[in-house]
Amino acid sequence: MPTRPETETAPLLDVRDLTTYFSLRGSFGSRLIGHEAGSVKAVDGVSFQLRHGEVLGLVGESGSGKTTLGRTILGLADATSGSIRLDGVEIAGLSESAFRPYRRRMQIVFQDPHASLNPAMDLLTAVGHPLVIHGLVTSPEALRAAVGDALTRVGLTPVDRFFGKFPSDLSGGQKQRAVLARAIILGPELLVADEPVSMLDMSVRAKILELMLRLKVELDLTYLYITHDLATAKFFCDRIAIMYLGRIVEIGPTASIFADPKHPYTVSLLKAIPDPDPDRTVPRDLPRGEVPDAVNPPLGCSFHPRCPRAFASCGWEGRDLTDLLERRWTAMAEEEFEQERSVVGDLASMEVASTTASVPAAKGHNGEDVLDLLKRIRQEDPEEPLWTGVRDMTAQGDGVLVAFAEPEEPMLRAVDDVEVACNLFDAVR
Amino acid sequence: MTSQLETPPVPSSVDEDADLSPMQQRRLGALRRMWAPMHDAKGMPKVIVWVGIGITLAFVLMAIFATQIAPYAFDQYQTADGVRFVKQQAPSAQHLFGTNVMSTDVLSRVIFGSRTAIEVVLLSLFVSMAIGLPLGLISGYHGGKLDRTLVLFMDAMLAFPSLLFAIVIAFLLSKTFGHGVVTAALAISIVYVPQYFRVVRNHVISIREESYVEAARALGARPWTIMRRYVLQNVIQNVPIIATLNAADAILTLAALGFLGYGIQPTEAAEWGYDIQRAISDAGAGIWWTGLFPGLAIVLLVTGLTLVGEGLNDVLNPVIRKRPIQEVELPPREGTAPVQDEVAAP
Amino acid sequence: MSEPVLSVRDLRVWYGTARGPVRAVDGVSFDLMPGETLGLVGESGCGKSTLGRGLMGLLPDGAAIDGEVRYEDRDLLTLSPKRQRDIRGPDIAMIFQEPMTRLDPLMRIEDHFSETLKTHEPDLSAKEIRKRSLEALGGMGIPPTRFRQYPHEFSGGMRQRIMIALALVLRPRVVIADEPTTALDVLVEAQILRILADLRRNFDTALLLITHNLGIVAEACDRVAVMYAGKIVEEGRSRDVFREPDHPYTQALLGSIISLSTTGLRYIPGAPPDLSEPPPGCRFHPRCVDAMAVCASQEPIEERPAPGRRVSCWLYGPTYEIPEGGTEPLERQEIAVADEA
Fold first, then answer.
1. CA angle, A324 as apex, A319 and A328 as ends, to 5°?
2. How far is B270 from B76, CA to CA, in rounded Å?
3. Distances (CA, A) of A134 to A22, A105, A141, B125
4. A144 phi and psi, to 5 degrees?
5. Order of strands, edge to edge, in the sheet holding A39-50?
6. Residues 26-85, chain C, touching B (beta carbon < 8 A)
7. What b-and-e string marks burial along C92-106, b requiring 16 or more CB atoms within 10 Å of the CB?
8. Using the 8-state DSSP alphabet, how is residue C24 labeled?
9. Quick check: bond before C318 cis, omega within 30?
10. Is the pLDDT at A1 greater than 50, yes or no?
């Protein structure tokens, strides 16, 4: 994909420190008291710029916040804090009616083609509705002409046959084309495409992607391409931002990201892509575990519990110790597991995000026993990254107090021609 | 105009109306798809619906052409020359269903009674829907405090015994509107508002999260447009079913009101429930025709409406609709081919 | 050499509809060897899921099935429903796509396992049940400390692993997995694939992996069978098929995949056929760049171009069956733009 030349013109979209938190409804009792039950930090401090005519990919797994980010930019979800500037104008926090005129300039294509079209509207009505909403057509003939033009652009011809079709008459690919027609008919500058091809068959994906590329050239569009599929992102995007748990962990030109991925998460994503090359085998060193809960994200760097290269300042805490114990016990025979389990008490107290954790001893054991167990575990696998973060462990009467190193939250820093948020690339080192 | 390569990817539309103008095609398309399940329905559900429709239609026709069909007026107690009818006369040539204690013709009262019933039910359906649908729509779409309050309110109304409720409302309204069709209709309609509210609200809540509704927001549609074009149009399918079942219930409520004396006054219109109440004392004296025929009319009309409602539910409701199971005949196999002559080592 | 553990011959599954029978699966034959992983791959509408369900006897009402499914000298299709149920579980297990809908939300994981084990191996003691369950779960990476939790307390990936553990705890000889990773993220998918790849090593279980994702087939399967419009068009060792596909559909499909090395977009024109009225002759001929005259009139005869490979395509003969002029290129009609998917 050709990279755009660096120009000094203002970006089309400028996002700074954007957060979108969804508050959770707690139990009835806590709501009564007014106690907030916590919030899902779907987007947790995202900044980037989007230039005219560029295609920026937002790549991440589920829970990364990429869809919420797209929706927030389009005003479909409320930003909690931060700024979104469209051509220099602040649009975050605008009321629905103040935002409405801006909707003509940005549109969205959703993931599920089977659910994005109103089942009660035929194509002429559905694709033409944006024009009616914004009062841009004055006669039925003008409407037909405009819709016919849009349908032709997306390849749904002969248009006369498609005007009267309902969504249930169309295939997945045709529906997605109709959705694209509806999105472009207002003449937007920015198109947010949220997983536009992931629900389509392999052989249809290429058709739709090609259509989107053609539209980009013909209509001078700027794309924000949201996906979990790195392969299509590599083909389609000029720049790529890798997201994890609400933050951008790496962002840069596509070629650089793929040639030399820096963030450990990016590295593992690339390794894990299934490739129909029979000489490749399933990678063995995948990050363990899964995407954590966005309500209580890990301390420091949110990726550290799964990162093969984590070290002292990445944010170790009690929950990591619990995970370690669980992993260990999973691989053990039942008798040994029972034996070790009986030494340690209820681990629930360690589920708090804090740099100190107290590992309780079970009845009949004391802190010394627990300390012995922990030391033995450490000896058996000293390479485990967690131990780099343990400053010291002291036995106290009824348990062990573990003190972890101070966490450092990684910020996006420029490294070569990309930006990475990883403590490995600390400016000091 | 149909091309040979036309293979619809989703086999549900056939291009046979390619000869019609595009506008006609579209209208036909919308109607056809609404009615399509009716064509596919076979067996019991279809029979049920059509029998129900038949019965209901008969009563509606009776109501419309009452003045033409009925031999006498509903409160007529004498012939044109002023000769009074015989009181409580058994069915005879001049009075096919006999006469009642007021010397009025039972048959005529049954026929005019159907007009009253249909009028009241139609009016009350209209009012209930006019109040219940928008409230349900707004409440379901916006949620929040408004929704919680309305739901509380509507649930409280539902908890009330409907007949009692209707009586109270009829009583209160009679001061302003008298004891005619309007009062009865309004009383009944208020009782059924919560039903429409609930059905619509629940459906709206499930639809509101769909992608196409969010897409409408992204397009810049105003909330009212979204509610009307994107939500309501998809919710409305359930309403006819509820309406017919409510209509059946409304007839019963109307008759009960009349029976208890809170309904329509005999001077305003003929009403079956009232007639039955007057016929109670007749029963002891062996006079059966004054109570039987109005009672039969109620039973038949309510049954007809219920059959339509339940039948429509079976046919249209995608959740319980049974796809007709077609039998398939597989032609015999042509012979087994060996799959592999040797096994490849993995 | 060893006998196949599952042997399917001429399997047909037809659904009755108002417009005529839909031939979802129309004459499928294959063998599954013990300890081998066979990938059954195809796009939506090719009949692969119907095939999986048909093998397990899980078809909806109104579907007619015919053919032979031999498991250990028995033809499963001739067994009574009760006997089929007895086999389902301990002998042939199935893993579905949506794990949340397959686990009972009101039962703890512990209860899921004890119910499964007690039903099929009633002589096991409670201690043994617990041991086997924890073993199966441990193999899937589920910690024993979470044995008594409910399904909703687990993430999607973990639920799928629980499903696999449930399927494996009875040590079946055959596992049929229907799109097991489609709903999961790519890293979790890779984890599960690794587990499935280890299956045959550790348990000698045969695995039939049904999916539309060619990438995972290449990585996890020994052999692959490509399905199109209800038939298998090509089969062979995955290494061979991916390196040198024989059938034009396989070639086009592989060419249309977007991978890290993709430089240009290629796709297959047209759309899969309507299975109630499949095209005459070879079902792929309307979309095939190499179609010949005979392809439009006669169904291809299966050929074996190499040991262990089979393909259904007139390009591979047998030439004596092709009539005069049959090898002329087919004059294909332009696929109308309206018929594009």
1. 150
2. 11
3. 30, 12, 17, 36
4. -60, -40
5. A39-50, A13-23, A81-86, A89-90
6. 29-31, 33, 35-36, 61-64, 66-68
7. bbbbbbebeebbeee
8. E
9. yes
10. no
- Looking at residue B73, its pLDDT comes to 82
Which domains does chain C show, CATH number per domain?
1-91+172-272 (3.40.50.300), 102-165 (no CATH)
For residue range A398-416, list pLDDT tens digits in order.
888 888 988 888 989 998 8
C120 sits in which H/E element: helix C109-120
CATH superfamily ID and name for B41-74+97-316: MetI-like (1.10.3720.10)
Q: Is C333 on the interface with B (CB under 8 A)?
A: yes
* More reliable by pLDDT, A50 or A361: A50
- Mutation target to probe the B interface, by most B beta carbons within 10 A, among C44, C304, C334 is C304
Minimal-distance CA residue of chain A relative to B230: A118
Tokens linked to C49: 């899921």
What DSSP designation does A222 have?
E
CA-nearest of A428, A423, A421 to A45 is A421
Spatial separation of the C-alpha atoms in residues A423 and A405, rounded to whole Å: 14
CB C219 within 8 A of CB A280: yes
Q: Are the beta carbons of B325 and C21 separated by less than 8 Å?
A: no
Coil, strand or helix at B42: coil
Q: Where in chain A is the domain with CATH 3.40.50.300?
A: 13-105+188-270
pTM for this prediction: 0.82
> What six digits make up the tokens of B337?
């081919």
Ramachandran quadrant class, C152 (left: phi over 0; alpha: psi -120 to 50; beta: rest):
alpha
Domain ranges of chain B: 41-74+97-316
Per-residue pLDDT at A65 exceeds 80: yes
From the candidate CATH numbers 3.60.10.10, 3.30.365.10, 3.40.50.300, 3.30.70.3190, the one assigned to the domain spanning A13-105+188-270: 3.40.50.300
Q: Alpha-carbon distance C155 to C141, whole Å?
A: 13
- Kindly report which listed range (A48-57, A313-322, B38-47, B100-109) carries the lowest average pLDDT score: B38-47
Q: What is the average pLDDT score of chain A?
A: 87
Q: Please give the ipTM for the structure prediction.
A: 0.82
Other beta carbons within 10 Å of C79: 16
Neighbours of chain A (3+ CB pairs under 8 A): B, C
> C255 to each of A213, A368, B49, C44, C269, how far by Cα in Å?
19, 63, 54, 17, 13
DSSP string, A365-377: --HHHHHHHHHHH
Percent of chain B with pLDDT over 70: 79
Can you point out the beta strands (E) in C59-137?
Answer: 63-71, 74-75, 92-95
Q: Compute chain C's Rg from CA coordinates.
A: 22
Helices B144-159, B181-208: axis angle to 10 degrees equals: 130
Question: Which of B10, B22, B221 is the closest to A170 by Cβ?
Answer: B10
Query: C71 is written with which tokens?
Result: 């498991």
A331 to C216: CB separation less than 8 angstroms, yes or no: no
